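Help needed: design a sequence for this.
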C-alpha cells in the first residue's frame, strides 16, 4: 500500500492530519487481523467507511498502515 492509496481513500489533508498525530493506537494482533480481513474483502468505499467509524487513534494507525508509513517505520527499526 502507498501514500497514494491513502490519499485516494481519505484525501490528502485527512491523511496528513492522521500521519502527524503523535499517538496513534498501537498495532495488536487482533487489530491486524480485523484490518487484513476488511482490506481484503470490502470494496474500497466500504473499507473507507469502516475506517472512518473507528476512534481517531485507531484511524491514525489504519492510515499509517494503508499509506505504507508503518511498514517503512518497521523496516527502519530493523536496521
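Sure. Designed sequence:
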Amino acid at each position: 500500500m502507498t501514500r497514494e492509496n491513502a490519499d485516494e481513500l481519505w484525501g490528502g489533508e485527512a491523511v496528513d492530519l492522521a500521519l502527524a498525530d503523535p499517538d496513534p493506537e498501537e498495532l495488536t494482533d487482533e487489530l491486524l487481523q480485523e484490518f487484513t480481513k476488511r482490506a481484503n474483502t470490502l470494496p474500497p468505499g466500504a473499507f473507507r467507511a469502516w475506517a472512518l467509524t473507528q476512534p481517531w487513534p485507531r484511524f491514525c494507525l489504519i492510515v499509517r498502515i494503508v499509506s505504507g508509513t508503518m511498514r517503512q517505520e518497521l523496516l527502519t527499526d530493523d536496521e
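The two ends are 21 Å apart (CA to CA).
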